Amino acid sequence: MSLISSFPIMSSSCNPAQNTIDWTALRSDFPLLSQQAHNKQLAYLDNAATTQKPNAVIEAIAHYYRVDNANVHRGVYELSERATQSYEATRNKVQNFLNAWSREEIIFVRGATEAINLVAQSYARPALKPGDEILISAMEHHSNIVPWQMVCKKTGAQLAIIPINDSAEIMLERYQQLLNEKTRLVAVTHVSNALGSINPVQQMITMAHEKEIPVLLDGAQAAAHLSVDVQALDCDFYTFSSHKAYGPTGVGVLYGKKRHLDAMEPYQGGGDMISSVRFEHTEYNSLPYKFEAGTPNIAGVVGFGAALDYLSAVGFDNIVQREQQLLDYATLKLQAISGLHIIGRAKNKASIISFVLDCAHSHDISTILDHQGVAIRAGHHCAMPVMERFNVPATARASMAFYNNEADIDQLVRGLAQVFKLFS
Amino acid sequence: MSLISSFPIMSSSCNPAQNTIDWTALRSDFPLLSQQAHNKQLAYLDNAATTQKPNAVIEAIAHYYRVDNANVHRGVYELSERATQSYEATRNKVQNFLNAWSREEIIFVRGATEAINLVAQSYARPALKPGDEILISAMEHHSNIVPWQMVCKKTGAQLAIIPINDSAEIMLERYQQLLNEKTRLVAVTHVSNALGSINPVQQMITMAHEKEIPVLLDGAQAAAHLSVDVQALDCDFYTFSSHKAYGPTGVGVLYGKKRHLDAMEPYQGGGDMISSVRFEHTEYNSLPYKFEAGTPNIAGVVGFGAALDYLSAVGFDNIVQREQQLLDYATLKLQAISGLHIIGRAKNKASIISFVLDCAHSHDISTILDHQGVAIRAGHHCAMPVMERFNVPATARASMAFYNNEADIDQLVRGLAQVFKLFS
Amino acid sequence: MNEELRALYQEVIIDHGRHPRNFKKLEEPSCCQEGYNPLCGDRLTLYLKVDHNKIIDASFEGVGCAISMASTSLMIERIKNIPIIEAQQLFEAFHLLVTEPSPTVKTLEYLGKLTVLGGVRDFPTRIKCATLGWHALKAGLDNAASEQRVSTE
Amino acid sequence: MNEELRALYQEVIIDHGRHPRNFKKLEEPSCCQEGYNPLCGDRLTLYLKVDHNKIIDASFEGVGCAISMASTSLMIERIKNIPIIEAQQLFEAFHLLVTEPSPTVKTLEYLGKLTVLGGVRDFPTRIKCATLGWHALKAGLDNAASEQRVSTE
Ligand SMILES: Cc1ncc(COP(=O)(O)O)c(C=O)c1O
Ligand SMILES: Cc1ncc(COP(=O)(O)O)c(C=O)c1O
Q1: What is the ipTM of this complex?
Q2: Which of A377, A380, B1, B74 lies at 20 to 30 Å from B51 by C-alpha?
């Protein structure tokens, strides 16, 4: 197949065992990375915001539109059948990717944000009473705060916050105390986008389940960087976005245990999510279609399938090992800079480094780095409460993907030297 | 620019005045149309389900991923600024396309279905009381029925139905009677997907506004086939999908008058839609971002911009004229077939023809036509109440776009001859 | 006309599609089961009269395409006066016929006249049409069985 | 270091960014106006003392990048002891400075020392930083004006 043969690591080695990956060759699968920015080679270090796409993904989308485009699930003709099969094939791939029990547990949405909102509106809202509690952590992304605030406002329920220590780790004893008979749901991030912390979610789920409290994991920063097994975790819901996992924008996944999804109200009404419509009465369709009203992002889902194929060809063992190498290298280099402070020093960390400089605000840092060809993020990273917690107005954040290399990090360090030159 | 130069009608003539279009050349802008289906040239006549995409759109998406991909609205670096500008440029194009008063009135969603659900949840649900009425017509798509049923169930409001006559036209006198002091909203389709009727929406809006009742138009079947001016119409909301307007899947538009949108609650919570988040209190961002939580379908929106450019280069005068030609031709040919009955004979019709045969069920028709290379839709077209109204279990539907031609219709007619051969 | 199409629309099918047998309501049925295909709107009601674990009469009503009408009509001809357990085996065999790339000779022999529906294999979007009546049968028998269990317990 | 960057981060800006002038609370201000940039989290409070349509004192507090701090600091130096109406003209002129490709000589002369912020033109994502204090000024003056209207009516 053309998508596979255009994948360099496959031609050099069919067995994606550790250390056999040619990372340099693999980088050339990502066309955007070869561009110049401000006359410098681009060092793209904003992967927590969004990842770049391999040619296989870009080609899968174009191929879909050139050859297979039709509406799904309803056509009798072959073209529509082909479109439906490519769309549904991705559902199977996601099922494997997460090791879900059934393909019916995989719902396609726009992104992690919509997935969380769906659970807030269809699962939590009808069930919550005044006084009930939703438990989140102090390191959540706004997408895992605001939907719960909205639903609390409607129902009279309340948010409770699991505190984090100075190293940016969940305080498990406090978490244990906060789990109580009023707690209706725990919603925590698997990996923090602002701090890099990998949370002890397995343990947290066990603790919550002892009190029969269900758990939602926000996997936006985890799914493309760790291997996730929802059955082993036994989480009740898992959410993530394709665009942060080398796939297209406009696609996300809600995984939910079948018994929850079955019991839930539909989220949106429309075509495909119904079984029969009369003005007097409407019957809803079965899973997963009950939650997929209207024409979905077909091309996006097809492209996402290509991204999952790509990821599994690289292999999570390799990805984790390479990204930890990069994290270690970058941490070493950055902490050697005096006047630079890393925010977020959890023992378990993904390849995300937030930092502040004594001499310059993160916004200025980012502007100057941009002129050295280095793309990092500056600001609150949609995690304002984290900024408050660490008493900083904003941070600069470098986040790495497996296609980054030591040269990117060196370029970041050289760029920071310019900041110091200007500001001190 | 490469997108423009790859656009044949531009090279032959810069002025898209009527009759100057080379429709044959233009057809070759759509790569999918040149394929064979079952060893026959494909006659794609299911444009009401989804339209095919011109190269300019496919290229715009690939170009975005190869060159501009970054997250929007939050990055300081140039790449992110470029992504934001391409994304926001489409908002201006949609504003022009609909002649909206302000770009803030344009909200990007997944599709028409989500747009209607957004209005149902954020506009109607908080306002509705038991006994209130939402007025829809008897020819709505499920996407403009089920969201209202869901909101009625939550609030105790009721659906009222504007009847249609045997020609599939809205009965305006009955509509006038149904508009009463309990009516909170009129939600009608601009063009019926199952019948082709173009509804007298200008008149209907005037009648509703006389009683100060707001009107939502479902423009899913209209936006790519008629020129729409929301200010002239004075509708309160207008909704449509990119994928039915030659653009990518996973993108839709909600237009709403600013004063409505300003007063509405946000729909989903998350990144980008907030101005500040504290655990105690969250402030929402201004329009349009209040309604665009999370990372949007950036590439899709960029591709949609290319589709709008394409449409405006072809020009609505040309599109309307060409599609009416095709409608007239197809109607003439089909009504000459004895044993074939056209369902939906409104005076004002878009290029959609639903029909039934005495001798064969629509599903069988579609299978046989597929084997002749003709793609049409068979079924209830997500409009089951329309099927009940006309007392048919299902219909076959041929729907034409400007890139279709008389040969496609001849191929359909020849295909039908095979159906008769087999079934009578 | 192409071969696959001819294989799908065999004479028997066209005939049963146009003139379905046992197309009526049944007086005092043991169970009446709705079958519904939301894709195309095909809808039928299957009536079964069961006695001592045997189907003693069956009929149906409804609207649908030639495939779903013919398939249900042929099914009813075959299941009349056979034990429930055999009807359930037939269901499995029929399922294999329309989904497996090459069903075994044994399956084909067992199904007999019902094999005329094998052509549907090449039309993935039509498999639901061919199995609509059969799914109604399975659901009806399951319900009948569980009701009987309930009433005998 | 590249030229555009040097044009953005001139000495004066680095200096005012690091040591903003009039960085304090004002006693008994006529108005105190918050300015907030959700993009980066920059947040400042502008204090104005107005008497007889004239700004007689001004100060600010807050956190932010060098551009927003310096811009506000330089703005306050300039608006002290000028009539409200002139401050409003300055707002317009400053807006032209940072958004127009080539501001007129007249605008540049009028703005004087404030022209050091012209370099921000080449950094579209930073224009909001440069204008944060100015937007607070405009909002503050509008509020002050409407309050005065309210109190004199
Ligand atoms: C931890 C976390 N949760 C949720 C989200 C929201 O993802 P999306 O914007 O794709 O919906 C993000 C992305 O920024 C994130 O980092
Ligand atoms: C009249 C009408 N309304 C709404 C829709 C729903 O559009 P989408 O599926 O793109 O959300 C359709 C599409 O089938 C339609 O024809």
Answers
A1: 0.93
A2: B1
